[in-house]
Design goal:
The chain has 102 residues and is mainly alpha-helical. It has four helices and no strands.
C-alpha cells in the first residue's frame, strides 16, 4: 500500500512539474510563419521553378515521352473511368503545366 502511495505521489509531482514547465519548453517553432510569409515563400519557390523551366526547356524527345505517357494514362482512364469532377480537375492541371512549359 505504501509503495502504491509513493508511486501515485511521484506521478503527481512529475505531472505538476511538466504542467508548470510547459510555459518554458515550447514544442512549437519559436516564430511560426504568418499566412503572408508562407504565401511569399511559396510564390518565391514557384518563381524559381518557372525560371528553371524557362532556362531548361523540354526537348522534342521529352515532349514525345510526355505525350506517350499521356496516351497511356488515357487508355488507363478508359479502363477505369473517373468522375467528371476529377476529369475537370486533371484537365485544368494539364493546361497549367502546358502554359508553364510554353
Amino acid at each position: 500500500m505504501k509503495k502504491i502511495a509513493i508511486i501515485i505521489f511521484a506521478v503527481a509531482i512529475l505531472g505538476a512539474v511538466f504542467y508548470f514547465s510547459s510555459d518554458y519548453f515550447r514544442f512549437a517553432p519559436p516564430n511560426p510563419l504568418s499566412p503572408e510569409e508562407i504565401l511569399a515563400r511559396q510564390e518565391a519557390e514557384l518563381k524559381k521553378f518557372r525560371e528553371e523551366s524557362l532556362a531548361n526547356p523540354l526537348t522534342e524527345e521529352e515532349l514525345r515521352e510526355q505525350d506517350e505517357e499521356l496516351e497511356k494514362l488515357r487508355e488507363e482512364s478508359q479502363a477505369n473511368p473517373l468522375s467528371q469532377e476529377e476529369m475537370d480537375r486533371q484537365e485544368e492541371e494539364l493546361k497549367k503545366l502546358r502554359l508553364q512549359n510554353n
